Amino acid sequence: xxxxxxxxxxxxxxxIYLFEPSLALQTPNRPVIGPISESRIQGLKDEWHxxxxxxxxxxxxxxxxxxxxxxxxxxxxxxxxxxxxxDPVTRMRLTRNMLFLGITDNKSDEELIEKxxxxxxxxNDEIIKRRVVQLAGQLLLKRYPPTLPxxxxxxxAFVQRYSGIRHLSRYSLYQVYLxxxxxxxxxxxxxxxxxxxxxxxxxxxxxxSSLLPTELVSVTLDQIRSQLGNxxxxxxxxxxxxxxxxxxxxxxxxxxxxxxxxxxxVGAEIxxxxxxxxxxxxxxIEARADALARxxxxxRKNYEIRLQ
Length: 308
Hints:
Layout: H1 6-19, H2 21-25, E1 32-33, H3 38-52, H4 58-80, H5 83-86, H6 88-101, H7 109-118, H8 126-143, H9 151-162, E2 170-178, H10 186-195, H11 200-203, E3 215-219, H12 221-228, H13 230-237, E4 245-251, E5 256-265, H14 272-300, E6 304-305
Parallel strand pairs: 1-6
Antiparallel strand pairs: 2-3, 2-5, 4-5
Helix pairs in contact: 4-8, 6-7, 6-8, 8-14, 9-14, 12-13
């Protein structure tokens, strides 16, 4: 029998390539992540409502779903990396679950854990999932370590965030409150306090009864506003704030006030050393987030992520 000529095989190969291009481009199947169920999506909405007291926008909900899918992917990655079998916390949890279900058969811990995994008990345990996701994130950071901020990075961040910005000014004061029906007494009492050199404690004996604080120590204008209101702060800002002096009358939504200024600390420009540790911490957090984002991007190449 005549053997087929080698040109015959080339022809057959060419026809297959032309008419079945998918065969030539076929890639190995990747594990599928998602889509998440409607019940999980509703759970995400409920958690958002508890935290923010409103419903997530479509964009916010999309971000929540993608984050959930990332966690599922990280869990799958962690299980494949053997993090369940190698972590004492998850091992203890699986052993406890097996004992709770009464599936022991006098097996060793290793056999119990192997049996638990074969029964997919790890898939329905939220605590195990959170633990594996946490460990998988740490493993991902080892593979894609964050770039630590240099002194130059920290100095640059200082210029970007704090250049020309000052510390908040702080005020210490006493206020003598007079109810609205005693507003006309305020000028006379102020003159008396000034002429007699009355101390704040002495002047406070003339105040009207109220729940307002009589002394504020080293507070910002915003803190004063939270205690005595906008009107009080606005009039205080327009007054000549001389230390160890009485000023007023200062109006508020509550009535009228005589004010003794104990001390004013004008906010100085923020210095680099004041915020260096804070800046370094922020940059480390940002670098960690960037490293995780790189790790997620590389990890997604190994999975098929389905949103729907």
